[in-house]
Amino acid sequence: MLGATASFLEEEYTIPPWVHLLNKSDLMTAIQNRLTGLLSWYKGKFKHYDVNNEMLHGSFYLDRLGKDIRSYMFKMAHQLDPSTSLFVNDYHVEDGRDTRSALEKYIEQVGTYQDAPIEGIGIQGHVDSPVGSVVTSALDKLGILGFPIWFTELNVPSINEYVRADDLEVMLREAFAHPAVDGIMLWGFWELYNAHLVNAEGDVNEAGKRFIQLKKECLSHFHSQIDDHGEFRFRGFHGKYNVEIDTQYSKKISKAFLVDKGSSPLVVNIDM
């Protein structure tokens, strides 16, 4: 299942020229056709969907069709594909560097659309020289809203690959460690993108090496023997696990299970 896509962008420069020429009636029809076409074609294929992107930075549809258009977009998207979680999404929310997308404004915006089926908060994560405490503070405040948070376009655009590696580590550690964050998507990884981890020749650069190092650190691997009670206990990260048991009869037993969020211990019984 894919991560996310966006139906609409609110900033004027992102709107195709032909859309600027539409009257109100034709613009509404174009919106309906866009939603119907995308969500019918990709139904069930996206984990979440950014319906109307960057609403703090533009108001193209709002200015032309009124305050209810944004909720309408979310409601129609939900009707077309109820299986997909619908997100708001914007940039510079986590670093406090843009007054248009100040954290307080984003929180207010989420509350404004309570009648719309919004199920998650996207923060794009385009951050230069990130400060861990600033990012964490933003996540803490957004987390109070109770929605899952995704970094939807994470990149750290320093030209210097060593600085980029350090900045990437700051962002990934803060995002991975925060209980409100459900997922992280990178904004490209090859050299055409300014946050690239892999050079044009296919070589992994310093930022890419740091990413691989952090990924290994954040995976749980355990090898041990069961105790006298036939138990084996461990602490691990949330996620999918596969346990393999070697018996004295050279028989291998395997079982997959999921460690989900929560404070209660998970007990997995395996029939030997």
Automatic annotation (TrEMBL):
<dbReference type="InterPro" id="IPR017853">
    <property type="entry name" value="GH"/>
</dbReference>
<dbReference type="Pfam" id="PF00331">
    <property type="entry name" value="Glyco_hydro_10"/>
</dbReference>
<dbReference type="GO" id="GO:0031176">
    <property type="term" value="F:endo-1,4-beta-xylanase activity"/>
</dbReference>
<dbReference type="InterPro" id="IPR044846">
    <property type="entry name" value="GH10"/>
</dbReference>
<keyword id="KW-0624">Polysaccharide degradation</keyword>
<dbReference type="GO" id="GO:0000272">
    <property type="term" value="P:polysaccharide catabolic process"/>
</dbReference>
<keyword id="KW-0119">Carbohydrate metabolism</keyword>
<dbReference type="InterPro" id="IPR001000">
    <property type="entry name" value="GH10_dom"/>
</dbReference>
<protein>
    <recommendedName>
        <fullName>GH10 domain-containing protein</fullName>
    </recommendedName>
</protein>
<feature type="domain" description="GH10">
    <location>
        <begin position="1"/>
        <end position="214"/>
    </location>
</feature>
<keyword id="KW-0378">Hydrolase</keyword>
<comment type="similarity">
    <text>Belongs to the glycosyl hydrolase 10 (cellulase F) family.</text>
</comment>
